[in-house]
Amino acid sequence: MAIPATTAHPTPPTTPNAPAATTPSATAVQTTKPGNGCGQPLPTGVALGRTTIRTMTSGAIAREYRLHLPPGLSMAKATAVVLNFHGLGSNAVQQEAYSGLVPVSDREGFILVTPDGTGTTRAWAALASIPTGVDDVLFTKDLLDRIQADLCVDTARVYSTGMSNGAFMSSRLACVLSDRIAAIAPVAGVNFPLEPCGTPVPVLAFHGTIDRTVPFEAGLIFGVLPYAGARTYASDWASYNHCAVSPDVEKISESVARENFSKCSGADVSLFVVKGGGHTWPGASIEIGRPGETTKEISAAEEIWKFFAAHPLSR
Q1: Contact 259, 234 (CB under 8 A)
Q2: Most CB contacts within 10 A, which of 128, 212, 214, 292?
Q3: 29-309 under CATH 3.40.50.1820, yes or no
């Protein structure tokens, strides 16, 4: 969950309880120097086809993240990275299981990084409803530096997704780290942040029409926090990315439609609208809390990777 920005008029640039993971884990304290791990041995304490718990320091704070390496990873081949941010009150263990991205990582060969937020109620400083006092943008930079130093990363294929508060975090990163984030896929929480944005970034969003946490239409989060609505924020991104004003509607299934903003000269924007869907991750096989209906008509994990694979960094 997160406090969103109020509706912006973007100006483009001129030029909660999921089952615990069963994979073995190990902890390694790390520094945060940028670098390139291509051609080096696999870091100590990690294994292919497994999720490992890693720790590092950012902003003088100890941080933790889950690192999942696909079984076919090669330290001689530059590999894509997907950042996967949990929602308010959730955690990395839950998000890794809830998102369903591990089997996609294993099949498609990308590195999956699922970090933990901070605070007693874990959150991200993406206009979070509970102020964290933590610089999570700095943490993301340091995390990417660490991953790039340890592994052979394709820096043109670094992506971000997340649920709810994690979706707001991904939306924020598209603004402030557009030089490093190739595309984003916010689930149940697309936002257009009220802070300076860089180069247009491709956006694929998902939102249920009966989301009682982050409302689909303009409304209030927790009864007090304004949210302009998923379509409004998708439209803001479309405007910023130099797309057509109105989207083309593609019917995907009985309850799911994809609203595609066409003629984008900056970057693509699409919104999956789930009729009757709750505050949920489409296609999830587990539930966190009591979020409402979860559609099985699409898999967010599959659609997210399909979108990411088609949108490497080109700027």
Answers
A1: yes
A2: 214
A3: yes
